[in-house]
Design goal:
heterodimer; A: 112 residues; mainly beta; 6-stranded mixed β-sheet; 5-stranded antiparallel β-sheet; B: 115 residues; 7-stranded mixed β-sheet; 4-stranded antiparallel β-sheet; 0% helix; globular
Chain lengths: 112, 115
């Protein structure tokens, strides 16, 4: 069964806009929540990760918001650029370096 | 520092055959994980090896197996291939040091097509 649910499946955003992708999980043993970005023909690359002891983490234009009580977390991409067009995956695991449970992915298209 | 390398990049096999995929982790990384990526099921964890021992295993049949060598290089094997095994197989390596965020670095994958 899918341990991490991700939405939306696809997203179209205009250049300069905000892209928002949401994820939800059930397993309270999860302690590490990374987001990965994947371009066609490439493996996923880590964008940003968060632990449940913080509610928000920001790195450049990328921000993770984390709601432990709701068991939800989201990725915000500010000032979205055409180069951000890729597939984004949220994931969860019981610790970093351990088996990642991935969401189904969100295909993001940023139009010029 | 060189990234994770996977060989071969592309492979075509027929049903019933077996296949071996290879992964060389980033130098110094001791953990290697394997994932299967398909359009329908997404990214699914296969297994993880640390210091030549399988530490975790996903929910895949016994036809899927792996091993890790003393230099941390890893191989995965799929026996009696089925059409549904067609997928991108991704390898990820991680340093695994206590107290650190042990990021998993992914290779480019091996695209397996089963005919």
């Amino acid at each position: 069964q899918q341990q991490v649910k991700q939405s939306p499946q696809s997203l179209i955003v205009q250049k300069g806009g905000i892209s928002i992708i949401n994820c939800a999980y059930e397993n309270t043993a999860f302690d590490y929540f990374p987001w990965y970005q994947q371009f066609p023909g490439k493996g996923p690359a880590l964008l940003i990760a968060i632990r449940p002891d913080v509610s928000e983490k920001k790195e450049g234009r990328f921000t993770i918001s984390f709601n432990k009580s709701a068991k939800q977390f989201s990725l915000h991409i500010m000032d979205s650029q055409p180069g951000d067009s890729a597939t984004y995956f949220c994931a969860a695991s019981r610790d970093s370096g351990y088996a990642l449970n991935f969401g189904k992915g969100t295909s993001l298209l940023v139009t010029p | 520092k060189a990234g994770v390398t996977q060989t071969p990049r592309y492979l075509i096999k027929t049903r019933g055959q077996q296949v071996t995929l290879s992964c060389s982790p980033i130098s110094g990384h001791r953990s290697v994980s394997w994932y299967q990526q398909t359009p329908g099921q997404g990214l699914q964890f296969l297994f993880e090896y640390f210091s030549e021992t399988q530490r975790n295993k996903g929910n895949f049949p016994g036809r899927f197996s792996g091993r890790q060598f003393s230099n941390s290089r890893s191989e995965m094997n799929v026996s009696t291939l089925e059409l549904g095994d067609s997928a991108l197989y991704l390898c990820a390596s991680s340093l695994i040091l206590a107290g650190l965020n042990n990021e998993q670095f992914f290779g480019p994958g091996t695209r397996l097509t089963v005919l």
